[in-house]
Amino acid sequence: MPLSLPRISRRRALQGLVAGLAVLGVLLWWLKPFGEPELTGELTLSTGVRTGVYHRYGQLLEQALARDMPGVDVRLETSEGSQQNLQRVAAGEADFTVATADAVAKYRLDGKPGANLLRGCARLYDDYVQLVVPAGSPVQSARDLKGKRVAVGQNGSGVRLIADRLLTAAKLDPARDITPVSIGIDTMPAELEAGRIDAFFWSGGLPTNAVRELSERFDIRLVQLGDLVAPLQASGTPARYYRAAVMPQDAYARARNTSAVATLAVPNLLVTTEATGAELTEQFTRTVILSRDRIGHEVHAAQLVDLRTAIYTDPLELHEGARRYYRSVKP
Predict the structure, then answer these.
(1) Distance separating alpha carbons of residues 127 and 168, to the nearest angstrom
(2) What is the 3-state secondary structure (H, E, C) of 65-107?
(3) What is the mean pLDDT of residues 322-326?
(4) Position 36 confidence tier, pLDDT thresholds 50, 70, 90
(5) Of 184, 172, 175, 106, nearest to 141 (Cα)?
């Protein structure tokens, strides 16, 4: 004959079961941070040229995302740089990208397709503008580039924007006073080494491996650009994102500079669109911030990603998913 529990015992057993399920729920919530379901699917991250900082940063971020979001297949797409990156994200051809703040401002100012859809996830690290010449070159400032063959970046790059603005600030016509060469950092060093160009502009984190490797096999010098910061900042709205900066002498230890080099810097932003899901954006932003030190071992510039300043994505409105993450870690 089956044993019948008293009513009070059955009530306590039911209460115990409910309590046990509650504890189990808490444990499952703890095992999966923030109680979020595992994300699945694909996303595309548009980076930059293969030898640039954007692409190497993207490769290391891809590894971090694979650990944090194993159900999401991350695909990297190389690009010419900031301008092309923004076009891809705005058109839905990529989900996330990195672009300089001045390029974002110009994209919005020009009313390019999808400009109103762009949203910021994080302010990352600053790019330093670098003008590289052979060590024995007579060029001492951008003004001395008149008549020279100068690599100014590809048409879709952020460096192209900055190079044109710097040349204009130096009172040079970018199309007439120099011979502009539209190539990227993947080929600039070899062209300089072979003597087919006299100088090249680059905008990237310090150090950029392509420049460092060039300095180890060929004598180069970095030219100061500090004298152009004031006229550049006075030239219009996008230029307000440039600030005076100094490249330490040891940024490129083998370069033939005898002191630090005055230049300008511009912040990089992690960019998506309002159409990207809040959960995905929140987790993506979390990985970017938490992987800073690990990525920074290989990409020094990534060490400068700072939770305290990451929220400032001007000129873009912060994506709601990124906002959720920053609220979750607010002291």
Answers:
(1) 20
(2) HHHHCCCEEEEEECCCCHHHHHHHHHCCCCCEEEEEHHHHHHH
(3) 98
(4) low
(5) 172
